[in-house]
Amino acid sequence: MTGVSTPPTPVNEPVLGYAPGSPERASIRQALAAVTEPVDLPAVIGGRARRPAGAEFTVCAPFDHQRVLGRSAESTAADAHAAIDAARAAAPGWRDLDFDSRAAVLLRAADLLAGPWRARLNAATMLGQAKTVQQAEIDSACELIDFWRFNVAFARQLLAEQPPVNAPGVWNRTDHRPLEGFVYAITPFNFTAIAGNLPTAPALMGNVVIWKPSPTQQFAASLVMDLLTAAGLPPGVINLLPGSGPEISEVLLASEHLAGIHFTGSTRVFQQLWATVGANIARYRGYPRIVGETGGKDFVVAHPSADVDVLRTALVRGAFEYSGQKCSAASRAYVPQSLWRTLRDGLADATQALTVGSVEDFGNFTSAVIDGRSFGRLRTALDRARSVDSVQVLAGGTVDDAVGWYVRPTVLVGSDPRDEIFTTEYFGPVLSVFVYPDDGFGDILTEVDAATPYALTGSIIARDVDAVARAAHDLRFAAGNFYVNDKPTGAVVGQQPFGGARGSGTNDKAGSMANLARWTSPRSIKETFVPPTTVDYPHQAPDPG
Ligand SMILES: NC(=O)c1ccc[n+]([C@@H]2O[C@H](COP(=O)([O-])OP(=O)(O)OC[C@H]3O[C@@H](n4cnc5c(N)ncnc54)[C@H](O)[C@@H]3O)[C@@H](O)[C@H]2O)c1
Ligand SMILES: N[C@@H](CCC=O)C(=O)O
């Protein structure tokens, strides 16, 4: 069938609670217990699993780094060439398949994930990425299901868009073609949903994809690949290459068939990729689409009218859930002097009270950071914070890597608003607080806007409506996702399309029609029913007499 079908209307997947005695708690316990021996995490090229020839790497549980979950290997230039060939071989069949059949693969994957695969993928995300059951549920179950279901509905709307006007005797149509070539999807460690969405969004629009997940997310990524295969994804449509990336990028970014990059990760890596594409621009058959969502230094601004309980909760949840390893995490807060007197002790106590440990103990609020590299970076930042006169450690500040990569949730208070604690993305459980005079609200908004190169997420906490309006106005370009009286994390597909601008990315809003539009190259078709058969125009006729 082609054309006019209506896919099921998407609704957000309900978030399960995992309370004691619930069926979901029993099934996640079972799925966690089933992860015993390390598994092989291969490349998948043209539907075939194969072990890349590069150096082996292991995927460990970050909260227990001696526990090996899986073994993989660095993909090589030869793997990259093979993936390009496989993708190109799959392209004609996939793009010519009708939209409904492509969409059905993702809808089937969503239903499998909502049902029999839910506990397995959540367990893999918990163990491999150190997510608590709640953080895994909102990511590897709900958000990924939502991406797949909502994208189908958005894609259907996009494909239905046709020229609104037809001149007499003419029929105008838009053919929403996929891109010519392959899309290179590069995904971060912190969200299984993002890893699943970045290759599948271009695929839904008829593109073929080469997907390189983060090595530290490879345990869950391999399961997502298995799930897509179980849902009927044909061989070669998405080709998975494990590893750190530079060697395969040498090949993929130099290929004339590179049609797009779908990236989420750090600003630094995205800028490198963009620069390489720029340097290679004469090689390509077309201009590659470059879509990237990157880093942030996300703010919470409190007004003197803020409710202190709302503020404290937004700060603790926003900064410390998943140990601050969300691009959206609250990492700098601006609090008026009068409120700070009330907030200070409660914030310190709430932070000290957070339980940090294994994700298999459901009593823990959060767990370890992702790996030794991140641990080392955070340890250096905390050592520095202790040595700088303008910074005080209000809570936390300690680290311990004996068993896992543990960094205690930390609150720093700084008196220099341009110190690196207010400008650098640490990507860990570190919240920096700046206390401003109560009559300096306007000035602090200017500072929040100017302090960092990023513009990803931010919140205003206030009861005064004029303060909310002023912040929304003055910070209009400081965040792509702006929250009023809420934490700056936790965007929901279909409700708060996610993405930031400035140094935070191209703001193509993951899980939206805008994003899907980047993976199509429209062709305008004009059909004339009774074409002219003479060349001359009326003005060429001689004047009478
Ligand atoms: N804006 C968003 O939506 C969003 C969402 C999640 C994470 N992030 C950002 O991601 C970062 C954390 O994730 P991360 O540590 O995985 O980021 P990262 O930039 O270190 O890695 C991202 C991906 O790029 C790969 N990579 C690195 N060099 C490469 C190369 N030369 N060629 C190909 N691939 C290469 C990595 O292996 C990984 O798969 C933070 O900066 C965070 O803010 C942003
Ligand atoms: N979309 C997620 C953040 C993704 C980045 O890590 C949120 O809104 O918290």
UniProtKB/TrEMBL annotation:
Pathway: Amino-acid degradation; L-proline degradation into L-glutamate; L-glutamate from L-proline: step 2/2. Pfam families: Aldedh. InterPro entries: Ald_DH/histidinol_DH, Ald_DH_C, Ald_DH_CS_CYS, Ald_DH_CS_GLU, Ald_DH_N, Aldehyde_DH_dom, P5CDH/ALDH4A1, Proline_metab_enzyme. The active site is at E293. One of its GO terms (biological process) is L-proline catabolic process to L-glutamate. GO terms for cellular component: cytoplasmic side of plasma membrane. It is an enzyme of class 1 (oxidoreductase). One of its GO terms (molecular function) is proline dehydrogenase activity. Keywords: NAD, Oxidoreductase, Proline metabolism. It catalyses: L-glutamate 5-semialdehyde + NAD(+) + H2O = L-glutamate + NADH + 2 H(+). Gene3D superfamilies: Aldehyde Dehydrogenase, Chain A, domain 1, Aldehyde Dehydrogenase, Chain A, domain 2. Its EC number is 1.2.1.88. It comes from the Bacteria. Residues 55-522 form the Aldehyde dehydrogenase domain. Belongs to the aldehyde dehydrogenase family. NCBIfam families: D1pyr5carbox1 (TIGR01236). This is L-glutamate gamma-semialdehyde dehydrogenase. It comes from Nakamurella flava. The gene is pruA.
